[in-house]
Write a structure and sequence with these properties.
The protein is mainly beta. It is about 5% helix and about 50% strand.
């Protein structure tokens, strides 16, 4: 079992930055592919970014590429999402996800979800 707890959400002005954290329980965190997803009001949940178990490979949605950075610290069982140059359209609940198989993040069907953290970007 893996439990994921996100933190770092809040209100930020457009153009600003915010760093989200996702703390994971469980001894096997280092073997999981991790991802961030988001869901805006009235919209479906969408993929934001993913990182492989070693941190050696990352991938981003086009909408955040060049602005967001995903990273992980396996010694701290934590994955991060650094969000820069935020836009009002980035407003959403951000969810952390963990998958034993890489494909789980790719298809949006991970093994575990966090409870989400709200990010609101004001114009």
């Amino acid at each position: 079992q893996v439990q994921l707890v996100e933190s770092g959400g809040g209100l930020v002005q457009a153009g600003g930055s915010r760093r989200l954290s996702c703390a994971a329980s469980g001894r096997t965190f280092g073997s999981y592919t991790m991802g961030w997803f988001r869901q805006a009001p009235g919209k479906e949940r969408e993929f934001v970014a993913r990182i492989t178990w070693s941190g050696g490979s990352t991938y981003y949605a086009d909408s955040v590429k060049g602005r967001f950075i995903i990273s992980r610290d396996n010694a701290k069982n934590t994955v991060y999402l650094q969000m820069n140059s935020l836009k009002p359209e980035d407003t959403a609940v951000y969810y952390c996800a963990a998958a034993q198989r890489f494909h789980g993040i790719v298809t949006g069907t991970p093994d575990y979800w966090g409870q989400g953290t709200q990010v609101t970007v004001s114009s």
